[in-house]
Amino acid sequence: MPTEKSPLKIGTRGSPLALAQAFETRDRLMAAHGLPEGAFEIVVISTSGDNAALIAADKPLKELGGKGLFTKEIEEAMLAGRIDIAVHSMKDMPTEQPEGLLLDCYLPREDTRDAFVSLAHGSLADLPTGAVVGTSSLRRRAQLAYRRPDLTLVEFRGNVQTRLRKLEEGVASATFLAMAGLNRLGKAAVARSAIPPEEMLPAVAQGAIGIERRAADARCAALLAPIHDGPTGERLSAERAFLATLDGSCETPIAGLALLEGGEIWLRGEILRPDGSEAIGGDRRGAISDAAELGADLARELLGLAPKGFFDWR
Q1: Can 92 be counted among the known catalytic residues?
Q2: Residue 141 contacts residue 252 (beta carbons within 8 Å)
Q3: pTM metric for this prediction
Q4: How would you list the strands of the sheet with 101-106, edge to edge?
Q5: Which of 27, 58, 84, 92 is catalytic?
Q6: Each residue of 256-288: pLDDT tens digit?
Q7: Domain with 282 in it: what CATH number?
């Protein structure tokens, strides 16, 4: 067991949301094992993605290098033994981990919906024709362009405060955040409304926190086992298999959400052209034990329906 003299080192990015997720992980470990706060150390690690985002705040994430930019340095620190575990937003995680690392612990999932944020309008449907909407998410951009081609879309990144300031400055009339992040930051009131999945299917693994460890570290495996949420793991098994089969990256607009209903798993998935000119969706229902295969099977179906060059920029 970790002690105040030999604390468990928890690696994380330094954003307010990342720190909130690391503190939640620490608090759950404290409660599960009856350990004091001093038995844990939060280690903030600056990633290439954080640095690139600061330098090029108006560039899309796909131009900065994709999801791995937000995990590389953290995973290198874990492989080097400088940290013991790492806390991640699962929607930012590549579908494959570096050799020697393992993701098999997930905290209970938060609200998966997108949050509509605006100073003047209550919902997406309320936006007038031609309204300017800011988002850095390729998935959200494609979904908006498909569902509301009358809107004007601009690049929009930053934390909650930065985005609200941009709205106040008139850079855009509305933007989007994840309800999960707002809830974890105690800022749910920032959302004017939460968008139902039927209207905008969320990103794969949105709202889920994953805790990564070294595969051979039996001590951390035993520490993490009591805080693992099985249902979240089952849902992510379907969603991440769907994403992996699609070879999802920050350059491909992909959405997916799995729910547990009546002893079965129900997975919905959607792929879109980057310009939002076309969307292809489908779903699967089946045994929870078949979650990963259901995800892969749905992905193969959607790929089979997509014409050549579907994910190419026009």
Answers
A1: yes
A2: no
A3: 0.91
A4: 40-44, 8-12, 85-89, 209-214, 101-106
A5: 92
A6: 999 999 999 999 999 999 999 999 999 999 999
A7: 3.30.160.40
